[in-house]
Amino acid sequence: MRARSQAEPKAACRDTLWEQMTLSFVTSGQSHGPGIVAILSGLPAGIHVDRDRLQRDLARRQAGYGRSPRQSIETDEATILGGMRHGRTIGGPVSLIVENRDHANWGAAQSAWAVTEEELAEVAARRTRTVVVPRPGHADLSGVMKYELPDVRDVLERASARETSARVAVGAMCKDLLDAIGISVHGHVVRVGSVATAPNAALTAKDFDVLSDRQVGCIDADTDAKMVAEIEQAKKDQDTLGGIIEVRAFGCPPGLGSYASEELRLDARIAGAALSIQAMKAVEIGEGWENATLRGSKVHDELHYDNGYRRETNRAGGLEGGMTNGEPVIVRIAMKPLPTLMKPLKTATLDTHEPAEALVERSDTTAIWAAAVVAEAVIAFELARAAKEKFGGDAIGDLVAAHQHYLSRIPWSPAAP
Ligand code: EPS
Predict the structure, then answer these.
(1) Residue 360 carries which DSSP code?
(2) pTM to 2 decimals?
(3) Full residue range of the structural domain in which residue 330 is found
(4) Tally of structural domains, the chain
């Protein structure tokens, strides 16, 4: 056996230590497998997990006009497998599973182990057939090439946005950490296809309360109704729709993140997290796109001092130099229309390479409201991760004390929440 070098155990220790110092998570599972699992490491002990909010966030992810009938089969719920006791985190990794109720309808077609032809014949033919018609715009084709898979179903099962159910559960727990230091994160829909709401720089956390009465997740009721009509028309046309979602985080102190490197800049992490959501294609922080067309004198948010530093405007979207600057964080994310069309696009089959029509499956006309809930979750994770790195703490009380000490040291005058 090869002798271990001195460096190996030290490097392993560093990784383990880093895992405890920062937050990290991984998910596992497929859309129609038994469930989606998440393991979230690095949450301090003593965080009260708000069970109602966790459940509410999972339900919000399933709602929204334009979702597929799949959502009437599922009632997502997170079963906690480890890392908590009596409603509080205990310092170890939190593991959870969101079960797929639809799994029961797939039987042998979704078995992890080899199955016989007879077993396969027991389930409906539509569920057993090998998929050889990759969808344009989907992970299908590159996935089968990359992993040398014989069946597009092996790709689409993992590429499905069903995976985001577990990410929403992770995000809900990160919101519990953020609550302890007065940070809240809110997502809404600002565009569906050709229908957009007027930009509103002055939104406060309270303005998001109306969303429980909306069908598509738009704060303005009239625009929400227009979005419903836009989705109805797309559905009639057997087409799909994308849109733009926006997430705002209130209460972030200046200094989360750092100046240089992809690993430390919070704007880079947030943009990466946003694009890690299935079907997202562009990210804007603050007035990023418009600012590129203006002069500096019209772009930068001027500073003044009134019991602490403040800005009257927030065109930077709360992030400067890779760090939060104390203003609300504002992130907009563009979602493409989903690639599963009821009137399929042209493709070529994997076996004969003959021209064909792409896979037609039950799908959403749009999942834009769900995307806003998922974006809230991944941004909550990034903010909690940055807060854990800034304030440390094995116990949430230590983290809160470090946060309070920091606020008493810096000359910052927070905007009203
Ligand atoms: C989803 C479940 C899936 C899709 C959707 C998201 O269910 P099914 O494939 O059984 O209809 O509705 O997946 C996608 C958008 C995608 O791109 O794969 C869910 O629970 O969010």
Answers:
(1) -
(2) 0.94
(3) 128-409
(4) 1
